[in-house]
Amino acid sequence: MSTAILSGKPLAGLIHREVQEQARSLELDGVRPVVAVVMATADESTRWYVRSIERAAERAGVGCRIIDLGHDATETELAGVLRDVSAEPSAHGIILQTPLPAGVRTDNLVGLIAPEKDIDGANPLSLGRLAVGQPAFAPATARSVVDILDHYQIPVAGKAVVVVGRSAVVGKPLSLLLLARDATVTVCHSRSGPLERHTKDADVVVVAAGRAGLLTGSQVSSRTVVVDVGTNVLSDGSLVGDVDQASVTGTAAGLTPVPGGVGSVTTALLLLHTVEAARRQFPSLPLAAGTAGAQVLEAAG
Fold first, then answer.
1. For a disulfide at 130, which of 45, 137, 260, 300, Cβ 3.0-4.6 Å?
2. What is d(CA 93, CA 91) in angstroms, rounded to the nearest whole number?
């Protein structure tokens, strides 16, 4: 059978155009939307990713401040910066980029990000608000999965959706977003037993476990749509997902590629969240009606 390849690039392009339009509208109202990226690492792949956010922001008309504290930054230094940026009116969105230096407790830091500027849903308050249906920014990667399914008109209401992975970044918030769309959600993890027991009869399988080749073609059916959230760097430097794409292609109904799938939408959504956060921090400005950003904020409703 033929497996539909669900590229994220067309959707990312649509979101980037919307960001440009909203950024121009804000500029006319005297507000330049700005995202602040706080980082403290020498990891080159992470630094490359942050530079990619900066380039995308520049193209979209969004300001990007990279606050690089160096690989030896202390938790106290990072906490001070997050408090300052959260209180700074000119910064509308905040990203705390990981990894952080050894010994730095991420859980102690993400709670310092002002919820209204928490564009990647890192603060536990954001996850809690999603859980009870209150407005909040979902983590951009989790939201990307839902937006890709929407873009390709793949229904989840009343469908069996399996999420492989239970991280606070993807698995848990994604399960909340899917529940809000009336999906029947199963979350699998290391104690769930053989994956195929859960995935074989699923309508949609989302894999976000951080293990290359975890899901194979024998574990899905011809009606299954597979969304691969994984990003794993192999010894030869190539990037692969959590899905064995060779065996799933030709078996599943649909598959997101790696690269070019979920990741391409994630960066675009971070910028969309930034312009929406900027507008919501100025209540006197009119809200942009019918935007994807508004859908993100109200996704758990």
1. 300
2. 6
CA dist list (Å): 152 to 4, 57, 294: 10, 26, 20
Q: 298 falls in which pLDDT band (50, 70, 90)?
A: very low
How far is residue 219 CA from its own chain's centroid? 25
The DSSP bridge pattern shows strands 232-233 and 239-240 to be antiparallel
- Distance (Å) of CA 160 to CA 85, 135, 187, 201: 41, 26, 11, 8
Query: Which residue intervals of the chain are DSSP H helices?
Result: 9-28, 44-60, 75-87, 106-110, 124-131, 140-151, 171-180, 196-199, 245-248, 262-280, 292-297
| Three-state SS letters, 162-217 | EEECCCCCCHHHHHHHHHHCCCEEEEECCCCCCCHHHHCCCCEEEECCCCCCCECH
Is residue 273 packed enough to be buried (19+ CB in 10 Å), middle (13-18) or exposed (0-12)? buried
Share of the chain above pLDDT 90, in %: 86
Nearest to 9 by CA among 260, 230, 270: 260
Kindly report, residue by residue over 171-203, the tens digit of the pLDDT. Answer: 999 999 999 999 999 999 999 999 999 999 999
**pLDDT for position 76:** 97
All structural domains of the chain: 28-114 (3.40.50.10860), 140-262 (3.40.50.720)
Q: What is the pLDDT of residues 95-114, one digit of tens each?
A: 999 999 999 999 999 999 99
What tokens were used for 234?
């192999």
- Whose tokens are 């202390």? That residue is 74
